């Protein structure tokens, strides 16, 4: 008798990295439940991309959770008074959203407990990235320990695994992997400051990393850039 596939909750922003991470979870045989967040981000149009990507990759269920991080601000993505930088920044850039991945993983963990899923996937990357502290392997390891200490499932002897399959990959390696797995990157959106039509600005840090990754991977870039 065939056993049922294991369930996994995958964070899905609609960007290149989260789409690839989701595809890798599916390739490993997980039944995937996608979770996206409408958190007051400047680039809310990415949620439309997340819907397209989730449908394309055959997720079992896709939920968009609403919370308003604009109440705190502190980031160019959640405070209109802070401009999105038009190029690389020194140190931690102003596009860092305070505690974002901690918040997102905590909510994903709650849903995972309800679903009976012990695996969470997140598309963080610590090589070709913008210097965010919550994209480092040390953070992922620490959160996994917290997940197993702070939950009923953990207390009853079950073990959560936080998968960050892209964490040590270059952007080119990520794109090559997703291309092999059939990810349609034309459905994704990575830009921090797109227009209302979903055209990427072409000059923010995320756009630059994305464009360079496609070039280095030798994969055609389907992104509609304004610049």
Largest sheet: 5 strands, parallel
Mean pLDDT: 94
What's the architecture, going by CATH? 3-Layer(aba) Sandwich
Shape: globular
Organism: Thiohalomonas denitrificans
Cofactor: Zn(2+)
Function: Catalyzes the ATP-dependent conversion of 7-carboxy-7-deazaguanine (CDG) to 7-cyano-7-deazaguanine (preQ(0)).
Keywords: ATP-binding, Ligase, Metal-binding, Nucleotide-binding, Queuosine biosynthesis, Zinc
Output the keywords.
11% strand; ligase activity, forming carbon-nitrogen bonds; metal-binding; single chain; ATP-binding; 35% helix; alpha/beta; zinc ion binding; 7 helices; 227 residues; Rossmann-like_a/b/a_fold
Please summarize what this structure is.
This is 7-cyano-7-deazaguanine synthase. With 227 residues, the protein is α/β, with parallel strands linked by helices.
Provide structural commentary.
- By secondary structure, the protein is an alpha/beta fold.
- The chain has one domain (7-217): HUPs (Rossmann fold), CATH 3.40.50.
- The protein is built from seven helices and five strands, in the order E-H-E-H-E-H-E-H-H-E-H-H.
- The chain has a five-stranded parallel sheet with strand order 3-2-1-4-5, sandwiched between helices.
- Helix 2 (46-56) links the parallel strand 2 and strand 3 (61-66).
- Helix 1 packs across helix 6 (171-180) and helix 6 (171-180) packs across helix 7 (205-217).
- The longest helix has 16 residues, at 100-115.
- The model has no long low-confidence stretch (mean pLDDT 94).
- Keywords: ATP-binding, Ligase, Metal-binding, Nucleotide-binding, Queuosine biosynthesis, Zinc.
- Its EC number is 6.3.4.20.
- Catalyzes the ATP-dependent conversion of 7-carboxy-7-deazaguanine (CDG) to 7-cyano-7-deazaguanine (preQ(0)).
- Pathway: Purine metabolism; 7-cyano-7-deazaguanine biosynthesis.
């Amino acid at each position: 008798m065939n056993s049922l596939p294991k369930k996994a909750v995958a964070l899905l922003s609609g960007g290149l990295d989260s789409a690839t991470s989701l595809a890798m979870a599916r390739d490993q045989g997980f039944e995937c439940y996608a979770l996206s967040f409408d958190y007051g981000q400047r680039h809310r149009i990415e949620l439309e991309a997340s819907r397209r990507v989730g449908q394309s990759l055959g997720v079992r269920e896709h939920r968009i959770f609403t919370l308003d991080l604009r109440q705190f601000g502190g980031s160019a993505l959640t405070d209109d008074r802070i401009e999105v930088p038009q190029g690389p920044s020194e140190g931690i850039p102003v596009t860092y959203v305070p505690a974002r991945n901690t918040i997102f993983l905590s909510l994903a963990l709650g849903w995972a407990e309800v679903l009976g899923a012990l695996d969470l996937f997140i598309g963080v990357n610590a090589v070709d990235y913008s210097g965010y502290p919550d994209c480092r392997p040390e953070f992922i390891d620490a959160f996994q320990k917290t997940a197993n200490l702070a939950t009923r499932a953990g207390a009853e002897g079950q073990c959560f695994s936080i998968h960050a399959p892209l964490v040590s990959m270059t952007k080119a390696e990520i794109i090559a992997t997703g291309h092999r797995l059939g990810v349609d990157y034309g459905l994704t959106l990575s830009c921090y400051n797109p227009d209302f039509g979903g055209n990427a600005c072409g000059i923010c840090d995320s756009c630059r990393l994305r464009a360079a990754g496609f070039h280095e991977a030798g994969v055609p870039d389907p992104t509609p850039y304004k610049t």
